[in-house]
Specification:
This protein is mostly helical and 206 residues long. The protein has 13 helices and no strands.
């Protein structure tokens, strides 16, 4: 069935992209790993490499989106005493839950690659980002100094650091209790967001 062939291609790409890198794997290799005899099967289903990558990520995005939106809803319903740490947790926790299984760990490694492939301006302007990420950015912005938002791009730094730390953990994590690690990453992300703009940095920006 066509749907089965499509899923096999997605699963093969997920494993090869995570293990070797998105740009280091040929589409022919993915076709072969998926057991597809038709050399044009991948192009038929996905168009190109980026279309296939989007399909791989789309397998994992819905539960992350649901969990993050739920945490952001809870934040809005009852603003906590430590808003930046709560928002850091809303960003990190849904992703950290993916450390629990091998496919989730591949997803985390892929996310880090995607962020590193894109330029900062492309990431900031992207409308393809999951809606919960954009919502999170909008909620964090008013809690930061304007200069940290418009000139230092503090939120982007926090996002990139989260993906990088989770990808690093995903390379070695298997069957661990990740609660301490997750809490530590949330602390660090909250600290990145809350760091005051020093006089030296402000002067250099000026």
């Amino acid at each position: 069935m066509a749907a089965d062939g499509r899923l096999r291609l997605v699963l093969a790409a997920e494993e090869l992209f995570a293990d070797r890198g998105v740009d280091a794997v040929s589409l022919r290799e993915i076709n072969a790993a998926a057991g597809q005899r038709n050399a044009s099967a991948l192009q038929y289903h996905f168009g190109d490499r980026d279309g296939l990558l989007r399909a791989v990520l789309a397998r994992h995005d819905p539960p992350v989106e649901y969990a993050r939106h739920a945490l952001l809803d809870a934040f809005e319903a009852a603003p906590p005493a430590e808003p930046l740490r709560a928002l850091a947790g809303a960003f990190v926790r849904p992703l950290a839950a993916k450390l629990a299984d091998v496919e989730g760990r591949r997803y985390l490694r892929l996310l880090d690659q995607v962020v590193r492939r894109a330029s900062p301006s492309a990431l900031r302007a992207s409308t393809a980002q999951p809606t919960s990420v954009n919502r999170w950015r909008e909620m964090v912005g008013p809690l930061l100094p304007e200069i940290a938002v418009t000139r230092l791009h503090r939120r982007l730094t926090a996002i990139r650091m989260t993906y990088s730390e989770l990808a690093r953990r995903a390379e070695t994590s298997e069957g661990r209790d990740e609660r301490l690690f997750t809490s530590h990453v949330i602390d660090v992300v909250a600290s990145v967001l809350a760091t005051p703009v020093s006089a030296e940095t402000a002067a250099l920006l000026g």
